Amino acid sequence: MKNKVDSVCIVDDDLIYQYLAKEEIEFTDMVSKIMFFDDGEKAIQFILEMLDKNKRHELPDIIFLDVNMPVMDGWEFLEAYILLKPRLEKNIVIYLVSSSIDMRDMDRAREISEVSDYIIKPVSGDRLQAIFTELLG
Question: Which of 9, 26, 47, 91 could form a disulfide with 35 if both were Cys (CB 3.0 to 4.6 A apart)?
Fold first, then answer.
């Protein structure tokens, strides 16, 4: 059994949230690498680049995806991701993370099988530790 998640990706345009999430993730000492993208399009471009270069091992194990972002929001990211998923050869766990408590967003997230859960910001260290522990099995 591995004792650390290889990599986690945070897709969020809020730099303060990115910093706080990084601190919480590092505090768990359960993740080897953290990647950041400030919009969904950059994250999709990264995934495409890793596929084109046959570097699937560099894809993240978990993506924490913000719902509301400029350029490409979380919903648009998911639409693009679903089209790419058959090419991944790797299961990436996706959590939607948002400050929105709108039930329509939560219900929409539940309808997308690629979304593991909808988490209201901020994500606590205990929740992160539980997510990483579950992934590590």
Answer: 9
C-beta of residue 77 within 8 angstroms of C-beta of residue 101: no
Q: Where are the domains of the chain?
A: 8-100+111-125
Taking every pair of Cα atoms in the chain, the longest distance, rounded to a whole number of angstroms, is: 40
Q: Distance between CA atoms of 20 and 99, rounded to whole angstroms? A: 14
Contact status, residue 97 vs residue 85, Cβ threshold 8 Å: no
- What distance lies between CA 133 and its chain's CA centroid? 16
User: Exposed, middle or buried: residue 114 (CB in 10 Å: 0-12, 13-18, 19+)?
Assistant: middle
pTM for this prediction: 0.95
How far is the C-alpha of 21 from the C-alpha of 35, rounded, in Å? 11
If you average pLDDT over every residue of the chain, what do you get? Answer: 94
Q: How confident is the model at residue 2 (pLDDT cuts 50, 70, 90)?
A: confident
